Amino acid sequence: MQRVVAALTRRDRPVQFCFVDQAAERLPALVAELATTGVTHVVVLPWLLQLGKHLREDIPRAIAATFLSTPEVAVALADPLGFDETLVQLAERRVAEAQLSVAKLSAAQVFATKVSAAQHESAQLGSGTATTPGSVTVHLVGAGPGDPGMVTVRARELIATCDCLIYDRLVAPELLALVPAKAERHEVGKTGWGPGRGQADINQLIVACGRRFRRVVRLKGGDPLVFGRGGEELAALAEAGLPAEVVPGVTSALGAAAALQLPLTLRRSASTLAFATGHGCVDGHVPDFKALAGIDTLALYMGLRQLPELCASLIAHGRPATTPACAIEWATRPNQRVVECTLADLAQRVQEAGLASPTLVVVGEVVRERIRVAAVRAAVDSEATQET
Ligand SMILES: C[S@@+](CC[C@H](N)C(=O)[O-])C[C@H]1O[C@@H](n2cnc3c(N)ncnc32)[C@H](O)[C@@H]1O
């Protein structure tokens, strides 16, 4: 530790270190004391935990809670050293090297076994160890299509316990209400993020927050890995050496299908399904319309701006102009709106209705089936009303 401090100090960063012996009850006094000395950043390295008494998370959690009373001091928490696989391996190596007596050997083996068992227990508790044991700080979380009920239990748990949230424009306000009041928030959607700032800035922000905070939730509409640039964010985290966890979300095509009771496949008439984006028409990567035209059901994301070109290209590549199609704006939200017609008419009808982003387009015979079943339901409901 002295060598680390010396190395950092040589780089003109005044660094101090201190050991705190155990005792969680001493922490508040120590933190208050630190704050009065003008300290701005604290890195806590929990040492060995008392095996059998502590879980991996409880001491770090107690420390983080203590620092909440001193917002002027930024705190970063490392994983307890006692849980580091290297430490276990070192212990095992030393045991082998020293060729200890049978009595000593068995004691050392007991130690190593206990550490591994505690690691396993912590992983079972789901403490953010899905990717790399112990050190996940950034979680890419799917917020679903808009209905706050359409998120995973894990997503809710992470949102409610994060200390930093980076979120997109399409995230439901009800989910934002779960975020702890003290958590730092960054909106990186179009409105909050400002013009001229792109994905590279977002990547930088995620990495910077990942280094500063213990639990960063990067909350993204739908699923993080479906047209959400989650791949680029994972790459940035990997380059920065920060492990990540991905928590899937309900992608908007599936949310919209559920909200409209629109089957995306049908036994006899729709056995292939593709999620595609029309966005590529703008940035130069033209979708393979020939291939897309042959898919039974197409769910088109971000296709609103290029809708006339998209529909015309599908028809030009052999999709009948009479193919049923629909556009769903704000699927699963109370303000959801739907336009249903043929592929040939879709762009015009969407424009007349004034649909705006976020809107998803579905093309295929499945739309006809939804219209048919909706008509059956309406007829049955109306008969039932007349009878009563
Ligand atoms: C940048 S992509 C994000 C997709 C997201 N990752 C997902 O899995 O749904 C944004 C596009 O998703 C679609 N979208 C997202 N939420 C939607 C919603 N509630 N209703 C309709 N379309 C939606 C729209 O096509 C929108 O332009």
What does this 3D model show about the protein?
With 388 residues, the chain is of the alpha/beta class. It folds into three domains: 2-81; 138-250, Cobalt-precorrin-4 Transmethylase, domain 1, CATH 3.40.1010.10; 253-374, Methyltransferase, Cobalt-precorrin-4 Transmethylase, Domain 2 (2-Layer Sandwich). The chain is built from 16 helices and twelve strands. The strands form three sheets. The protein has a five-stranded parallel beta sheet with strand order 5-4-6-3-7, with helices on both faces. It has a five-stranded mixed beta sheet with strand order 8-9-12-10-11, sandwiched between helices. It has a two-stranded parallel ribbon with strand order 1-2. The chain is elongated and about 75 Å long. The N and C termini lie far apart (81 Å). The model is unreliable at 102-134 (pLDDT under 50). The structure holds S-adenosylmethionine. S-adenosylmethionine is lined by residues 145-146, 170, 220-223, 226-228, 251-252, 256, 301-302, 328, 330-332, 357-360. Residues 145-146, 170, 220-223, 226-228, 251-252, 256, 301-302, 328, 330-332, 357-360 line the site of S-adenosylmethionine.
Question: What is the string of SSEs from the N terminus onward?
Answer: HHEHEHHEHEHEHHEHEHEHHEHEEHEH
> Taking all residues together, what is the mean pLDDT?
82
* Percent strand: 5-15%
At the third CATH level, what is the topology name of the largest domain? Answer: Methyltransferase, Cobalt-precorrin-4 Transmethylase, Domain 2
Top-tier CATH class of the largest domain = Alpha Beta
